[in-house]
Amino acid sequence: MTESLLERRARLMGPNVPTFYRQPLHLVRGEGVWLWDAAGKRYLDCYNNVPHVGHCHPHVVQAICAQAGVLNTHTRYLHETALDLIDRLGATMHHGTTQAILTCTGSEANDIALRMAQAATGKTGIIATDNTYHGNTALVSQLSTRKPPIGGYAKNVKLVPAPDSLRPVGGSIEGQAAAFAANVARAVAELEADGFGLSCMLICPLFANEGLPDLAPGFLDPTVQVIRKAGGLMIADEVQPGFGRSGSHFWGHDRLGFAPDVVTMGKPMGNGHPVAAVFATPAVMATFREAFGYFNTFGGNPVSAAAAMAVLDVIENEGLQDNARTTGAYMLERLRALRHPWIAQVRGAGQFYGVEFLTDDGAPATAFVADVIEAMVARGVILNNIGKHRNTLKMRPPMPFNREHADIVADTLAVVLATTPVRA
Amino acid sequence: MTESLLERRARLMGPNVPTFYRQPLHLVRGEGVWLWDAAGKRYLDCYNNVPHVGHCHPHVVQAICAQAGVLNTHTRYLHETALDLIDRLGATMHHGTTQAILTCTGSEANDIALRMAQAATGKTGIIATDNTYHGNTALVSQLSTRKPPIGGYAKNVKLVPAPDSLRPVGGSIEGQAAAFAANVARAVAELEADGFGLSCMLICPLFANEGLPDLAPGFLDPTVQVIRKAGGLMIADEVQPGFGRSGSHFWGHDRLGFAPDVVTMGKPMGNGHPVAAVFATPAVMATFREAFGYFNTFGGNPVSAAAAMAVLDVIENEGLQDNARTTGAYMLERLRALRHPWIAQVRGAGQFYGVEFLTDDGAPATAFVADVIEAMVARGVILNNIGKHRNTLKMRPPMPFNREHADIVADTLAVVLATTPVRA
User: Fold this and answer.
1) Average pLDDT, whole number, for chain A?
2) Residues of B with CB below 8 A from A108's CB?
3) Residue A165 pLDDT > 80
4) Is the dihedral of CA B198, A194, A261, B8 positive or negative?
């Protein structure tokens, strides 16, 4: 069955369309933090952040069904729910980013955010980190490093070394914030020398794809000073940190402690329903709205807005941000108690965990991590890897993940670490 | 109520976010070809193509609800429905465009299509028409002419004069196909001289935004020859013509009679659920897949795929393409029987109608058409305008629109034309 689905997939989708895992999963059902494959095998989902409030949460499903049966149009007509959504999300923002454009995907949101910065500053230079991912449009994919964009990298994009908990930028943890900012200052100077000028820096406040480094609040302060001094905007890509995942804060930029001009969000926002958004300060929004007649057919439609409202309901009603904080602390404790000679660092931010492995020689244990992931999946726990060298276990479960689930993951990981042969 | 919603909208969405109509509609319910506003007033929807099989069609709503309650993940896992959808749509393609990438919006689809052409040809030049719209990403908005993109138009994009039924390119209807192709050949030569080379021409096979000109099958043949000779790809944007709307054919490119290398689709595909796609020949798909690691989190998720499958079910079960053909012919008959000194031409393609108005001096009757639209809406019929001068009534109803509805529109239009003062 799986094999014929793979063949069919190649015939219909073309070559080079990766699946997860050596034996790709053929999933047929999801509920809460659980997934089932076609053979009836159950998996604890310790990876997927899109089903933020749990797979197929009945409150979200009900909201989608109810609205889909009544009306689904677009924002050229008036409707309350899109406005209710912007109002409600805007109330969680502490730095004035209270106006929004609703889109369908985080890629669309970042594509707009970059143009907002260009409209607001009149400049075109963009700074991002060197091992990141912010989406798949032609513009946004210029910031991705895994595969060069078609036609090569744009000259107005500068990528600076990402912060790292083990191999800090500049050589020391204490000096990393200043060293990171110094690289950003150098990139600003290059963009100005090349005639682009600086429009913005776009970052994920968790630096999640970069490896989820442990960073103290205020880490970004020297960088933000550099950007502000150059007249640029700070854009926070909250696709991964947002909606309470970090436990301590609803948004990643508040956790790190900086004030963005533009905030983008996507994946978890509709629990799988395609809805995303760009929030901006009224001043930045106005420059974009006046410069470009943006309209998104599906963006902000009543069904998408209802789905996103329902997700916010569940986060509140089920105390999911608080659960992320307490379960996060417990899970970190369990992970830190694991013993393996190649565990180099255990990191976490609410319901987002990283366990980095280095070999005896201090090299990234990429192959070993790949083997661990396969062994975990075989034992019914879904997770994956992050970081430039893919040597960090990535665990980012649906938010209802609790102590009982944390125990399953930690117990299984203990067995897998004890039984997986080490190889670099 | 409406006024306070407008104020709230400006506060939450920013300035310059247009609504339709002088008194924006506050819609609360939809069913089939009917919409209701908050005051309970009913409107015949003669405009919206997104609710392709009718507002809130129960079969589509049921498909969304059923799948949303069972599983909603992404295409890094295996699942049948996305494959079933590509298989089923691929079977409607007659020119080998059988492989697909599923996305959320037509903008995303066109953003990919343009990069496919660049990957397949190694060139970057793009040709489109001069009064078109293909989407809102940074790349795709380069093809839009209503508002210049932020930072100005890209030099690798050439826009050629759109075909026109009343003021034909080159001066005569008989010579228009050759004149249009000659302009395209000139654009190709310019792109080659400027060092970009030609990657593709992207067109809507109905030239819908351009004004829905009456064009004979084969109109595009000389142009396609020019593009092929230069090594470029033909991309058909089927966002408006597709899914049987033209009555005679399921796809607009088959109606016009040319073989595209890439076909994009969006709006009607999920009846309002955000789902879209790019189909390509396996050769073109392979060059893109090898050049760029494209992944779309929500694209091809089981719920979106189920929605799109349900739309295809309804088109078949309710004979909607055939209805578009027969109702289209009847509606055209009714529209052609209308009498007004300023009616210059009545055009149609299945369930897509245009009535163009010129003043006594032969100038576009833009203001008069605006007044007619407002009067129609006041009488409960929703429609809009198209064309460079916005002097053509645009009627593009949900596909279940039938003779009874055609009579309502034609009868109402007769009254409105008789009672609306002429003004240029």
Assistant:
1) 96
2) 104-105, 107-108, 136-137
3) yes
4) negative
Backbone CA torsion sign across A114, A297, B379, B349: positive
User: Does the pLDDT of residue A1 top 80, yes or no?
Assistant: no
Does the ipTM surpass 0.85? Answer: yes
**Helix, strand, or coil (residue A400):** coil
CATH homologous superfamily of B2-53+319-419 equals Aspartate Aminotransferase, domain 1 (3.90.1150.10)
Instruction: Give the pLDDT of residue B3.
Output: 65
Residue A83 is nearest to which of B9, B76, B105, comparing CB atoms? B9
The SS3 assignment for A177 reads helix
First to last CA, chain B: 33
The bridge status of strand B343-348 relative to strand A381-382 is: unpaired
Task: Compare CB distances from A77 to B27, B101, B137 and report the shortest one's residue.
Answer: B27
Find the residue in A nearest to B35 (Cα): A71
pLDDT over 70 percentage in chain B: 99
Among B279, B261, B173, which residue's Cα sits nearest to residue B224? Answer: B261
Spatial CB neighbours of A236, under 8 Å, sequence gap ≥ 6: A203, A204, A205, A251, A252, A253, A258, A260, A262, A263, A264
In Å, what is the CA distance from A128 to each residue of A157, A210, B219?
8, 11, 47
- Phi, psi torsion values for B228, nearest 5 degrees: -60, -45
The helix (run of H) or strand (run of E) holding residue B280 is strand B276-280
Q: How far is CA A74 from CA A81, A97, A303, B22, in A?
A: 11, 23, 10, 17
Contact yes or no for A77 and B19 at CB 8 A: yes
> What does chain A come to in residues?
424
Helices and strands (H and E) in chain B: how many:
12, 15
The verdict on a CB contact (< 8 Å) between A138 and B115 is: yes
Chain A positions in Cβ-Cβ contact with residue B277 (cut-off 8 Å): none
Contacts of B418 (CB under 8 A, 6+ apart): B340
Residue with tokens 């300060």: A281
> What is the distance between the alpha carbons of residues B295 and B273, in angstroms, rounded to a whole number?
19
- List pLDDT tens digits, range B395-418: 999 999 999 999 999 999 999 999
- CATH number for the segment(s) A59-317: 3.40.640.10
Give the mutation candidate from A34, A264, A297, A396 for the B interface (greatest B CB count, under 10 A): A297
Contact A146 B293 (CB under 8 A): yes
Q: Which residue of A has its CA nearest to B109?
A: A137
Tokens linked to A59:
């409150």
Residues of A with Cβ-Cβ distance to B291 under 8 angstroms: 150
CA distance linking residue B95 with residue B98, whole number of Å? 8
Q: Do A83 and B12 touch (CB under 8 A)?
A: yes
Rounded to the nearest 10 degrees, the angle between the axes of helix B58-68 and helix B302-317 is 160
Confidence band, pLDDT 50/70/90 cuts, at residue B144: confident
Cβ of B16 within 8 Å of Cβ of A290? The answer is yes
Q: Show the tokens assigned to B407.
A: 């009579």
> C-alpha distances in angstroms, B40 versus A306, B5, B20, B182, B380?
22, 17, 19, 53, 11
Measured in angstroms, the CA of B266 and the nearest CA of chain A are apart by 10
Going from N- to C-terminal start, the domains of chain B cover 2-53+319-419, 59-317
pTM: 0.97
Q: Give the domain A2-53+320-419 fold.
A: Aspartate Aminotransferase, domain 1 (3.90.1150)
pLDDT in tens, A206-246: 999 999 999 999 999 999 999 999 999 999 999 999 999 99
